[in-house]
C-alpha cells in the first residue's frame, strides 16, 4: 500500500471535527426547536400514515444521533486506511457488521417482523453496474466530504457545504435512475448471490463465514498499521458518566453496536434493512415531474416503484428514516454545542458539486450506497456488499490524488467526519 503524501493545505472540510476540540455548552434553544419539529412530524405521521412510519422516524433520529455523536465515518474510514494506514475505524465497521449479521441471520431465517409482513435482505447482482457505480461512489464521497449517511448527518450538524453535496447527490441519483435500465439490462452481470441461500451454507454457515471474514479484515488492518506505523486517531473530548450518553463523543465500537442493532430494528419494522439513496431518487424524480418531465415512463419507476412515485413522500419509509437522521444529528450537534453554519470556499463548492453527482449516480448503479449496499448488503449476506466495499476503496485511492486539486488535504490521522 502506498502512503499518500501531499504538502499541507488549508483543511476546510471538517469544521465539526475542529470545533469539537472543546466541549461547548449545549444550545438549549436549538434542542427545544429540534424536539418540537420531531414531535410535530411524529404526530402527523401517526395520524396520516401507518404505525411503522412514526416508529421509523424515531429510529432514524437514533441513527442520526449515533452517527454524529460518535463521528462514525464510512468515507473517513476508507480515507484513513488508504492515506496513512490507520484501520481503527474500519475495525469498528467489522464490529458493526459482525453484530449485524448475528442479528440479521435469525430475522431473515425465520421472517421475524413487528408487523407480520415479509422480511427480505438486500441481495443484488454483481456486474458492470455494481463495479462502475461503487467506484464512482468511492471517488464522490471523498470529494463531496461525506457518504450518504455522512451527508445527512453533516447537514443536520450545520455544515453548509454539505447542503451543496446533498442537492447534487439528489440530482445525480435522479439521473442514475433514468439511466439504470441501460446498466442493468444491457451490461453483463451475475445473478444475485447470497452466502446463505445461494451456496448451501444456510444462515448459520453464512454467519460463520462472515465472522471469519471480518476477523481476517480486522487482522489485515492491524498488519498494515504496524507496517506503516500509522498515527492513531485523535480522541474527542466528552462528558463523563451518564452525561456521555447525550454530550461529547461515544467510542466508535459502542456506536458500531448501536448502529447494527438499529439496522436490525429497521429490518423488523419495515421488512427491509436501512437505506438512504432511494429516497433521493424519489425526491429528485418528483421535482423533475413538476417541471414536466415524464418520470413515470422511466424503467426505474415501473412495477413496485411506481407506487412510491404516485404516493406522498411521507408514505415512503426511506424518506422518513432520512428525516429522522437529519433531526437526530441536529439534536446531537446542538447538545454538544456544535451546531453552526460554516464557510463555503470555491474549492469546497466545486468538490461538493462533483462529489454529490458521482455519489448519486454511483449509488443508483451500485444498488445503494455505503448504507444500503455496503452495510445492508453485507449484513444480508450478499456478495455484492463485499464487492461494493472493495471497489469503493479503489475509488477512494484515486480520490486521494484528486482532493488537493480542490484545496482539500489528505488528512494525517484524526479526520473522523464521515
TrEMBL record:
Topology with respect to the bilayer: Multi-pass membrane protein
Keyword Nucleotide-binding listed: no
Keyword Cell division: no
Primary location: membrane
Residue ranges of coiled coil: none
Superkingdom of the organism of origin: Bacteria
Keywords on record: Cell inner membrane, Cell membrane, Membrane, Transmembrane, Transmembrane helix, Transport
Residue stretches spanning the membrane: 30-47, 53-74, 95-116, 161-180, 200-224, 245-268, 320-339, 351-375, 381-402
Cellular compartments per GO CC: plasma membrane
Location relative to the cell: Cell inner membrane
One Pfam family hit: Sulf_transp
Family: Belongs to the TsuA/YedE (TC 9.B.102) family.
Listed PANTHER family: INNER MEMBRANE PROTEIN YEDE (PTHR30574), SULPHUR TRANSPORT DOMAIN-CONTAINING PROTEIN (PTHR30574:SF1)
Protein name per UniProt: Uncharacterized protein
